[in-house]
Amino acid sequence: MIKKHLLTCSVMLVLVLISKLNIFSTTIAETVAKPTELSHRNSNFIFIKSASAAFNFADEALPVNDARVNRKLNKSLRQHDFKAVQSNILHRKAEKLFPIIEPILKFYGIPDDFKYIPLVESGLKEGVSPKGANGLWQFMPGTARTYGLKVGHGVDERLNVRKSTIAACKYIKELYGEFNSWTLAAAAYNNGSIKLERAINKQNEDNYFRMSLNRETGSYIYKLIAMKAVIEQPAKYGYKNNSVITPAPQLLAFN
């Protein structure tokens, strides 16, 4: 009787162990089968395969699980990390310019993310572009005059941070009124509203991230998002001894 009882207990113990092993193997199989989230790693930081889910421009989200979007975003992040830039000039410019730019953007109702346009447009270079654009906001002479800046006869207000930012805000607000999207407004700032409107009509698509645009405009918003990332989280992207830039609290009156 005792032997029979021991045999029964032994059989039950074996069944329990087999059950545990099956559960363990199933868990391992599910873990192995589940695709990993990490797609690239270097010595400074990690690029996320579904990176688009963690980024936005002016609170307009990027499409998630879109391989093309993730590829372009990760490329832009790599191009703006410290290994690529090899300078802290972007952070020094941000510390100097943002306290002037931020309250003007706020006064005109422009999202704070537009403060990164000057860093993308003229962050690592100075002077007049081959096409004639100048200043932080890279205004062409005609556009600058349209929005109230004096250009010519020894005067170039495109170089005045405050005045050129006011002009940029007026222009950006007008673009938003036309496209009803801050992302498209930023793209139009780079490429011009006529060209962007033509592309929207031709492609029957008004989502910037799903459109096919010229090389410069097609990467423009990704550059702004990458610039925002390296300024707000410098250590993550290899920059050292940089404090996070905080918004200016004051709200001034600008004409």
From TrEMBL:
It holds the Pfam family SLT. Residues 105-207 form the Transglycosylase SLT domain. It comes from the Bacteria. CDD domains: MltD-like. Belongs to the transglycosylase Slt family. This is Transglycosylase SLT domain-containing protein. It comes from Mucilaginibacter pineti.
